[in-house]
């Protein structure tokens, strides 16, 4: 809070499809629940004007609801998503979130808002969280009454209101400090969300910071911190670690790749094989008729096929305005029509195929056949390989730069990770391009990225085979 107020990060742009942008879209759609509501405009710089506008709308009995209502009380400024005028002179407060239900952190918002609004002279009869209804099935258009559900949090808010003045006083005390309170970065920085200052607060940590030990629990972290141990290499031998953590620590001390025995027995033999990767999106607002909020939508695949030692590539990217499930499955089944294992690098592709089989009963048998051919290389890497530069992770993005440095994501423009791919797929599906962005460039970025993923997978598999044969990975 201190950093946000005194030394904020430069706000990153929120491209359509990002969590932030979708949150705005959801908030806007929720206005349809209150026909005749009036929006109070203005950004943070026009806050005082927004407060005056809100007061005028409150005084006008013909206004049934106010969106983005602005209030200030005890030096706390708020914008309430929706306040609804009730018949008895009181108001209902509606906080809108793109989540799927009421969470403890939502209560903080509702508590502070209720305190400030009531301090400003209005009486709040109920405090509610308007959230996404996952049971909603989209028809031709979006029906806000079906898309949203509402959770009544009035009892919790009433029970917590007495503590709010003290908490606000405490927050003002912290804001008045000459410098940020000293907190050590740890698990608290991710509750309930990753703090935007994580990179800043951890920039001086050593490369082998104990945080990068896989599955390090809070007790282990606290014990090592208390003992003054920041580097994995300095963890005392007698400190209790899991077998995997011990192997990672050993790799750091050796400074090189460590291969555990037994790899050869776990790699299947084959004449032909494939390397498969999917990209999906799970939009809060369903895109197609018959689809539901947050349902995973398979939209893109990349397949490298190894035949007679050579790699051939095939790919699919959904067209914008139609449900791509059937085209995705049909093109994939055609490209995968050969015998041999299909290597993937997570359980994700199997889960997507299982869902596709349920959605497309006429193709279910073929899709299930393909699913039984999947071989996940991630558990093999996790169990058998450790390298300091993996940074305690076994993800393909951590492993490929070490095992297959010739495959680089550095030259990619626009789409460089799974999150960006999901956002780009959303922009493609909705036609909400960013300024200066062309559809062709967006598609090219997605195709290049997904192709590189399966190429990296193929190269990592080659290295695994060399290591299994007792050769060096270099
Ligand atoms: S990263 Fe953690 S320690 Fe740093 S400001 Fe955020 S919550 Fe505080």
Q: How would you sum up this structure, described in words?
A:
- With 474 residues, the chain is α/β, with parallel strands linked by helices.
- It folds into 3 domains: 2-172, no CATH class; 187-242, no CATH class; 256-474, 2-Layer Sandwich (Nucleotidyltransferase, domain 5), CATH 3.30.420.
- It is built from 18 helices and 13 strands.
- The protein has helices at 2-6, 19-30, 47-59, 104-119, 144-147, 154-160, 164-175, 198-202, 218-226, 243-254, 263-266, 325-335, 348-359, 364-372, 378-384, 396-403, 418-430, 439-468; strands at 38-39, 65-73, 76-85, 91-96, 124-132, 148-152, 258-259, 272-281, 297-307, 310-317, 342-344, 374-376, 385-386.
- It has a 6-stranded mixed sheet with strand order 1-2-3-4-5-6, sandwiched between helices. The chain has a 5-stranded mixed sheet with strand order 10-9-8-11-12, with helices on both faces. The chain has a two-stranded antiparallel ribbon with strand order 7-13.
- Helix 3 (47-59) links the parallel strand 1 and strand 2 (65-73).
- Helix 4 (104-119) crosses helix 6 and helix 17 packs antiparallel against helix 18 (439-468).
- It is globular and about 80 Å long.
- Residues 3, 183, 185, 189, 195, 197-198, 201 line the site of iron/sulfur cluster.
Short description:
The chain is α/β, with parallel strands linked by helices. The protein has helices at residues 2-6, 19-30, 47-59, 104-119, 144-147, 154-160, 164-175, 198-202, 218-226, 243-254, 263-266, 325-335, 348-359, 364-372, 378-384, 396-403, 418-430, 439-468; strands at residues 38-39, 65-73, 76-85, 91-96, 124-132, 148-152, 258-259, 272-281, 297-307, 310-317, 342-344, 374-376, 385-386.
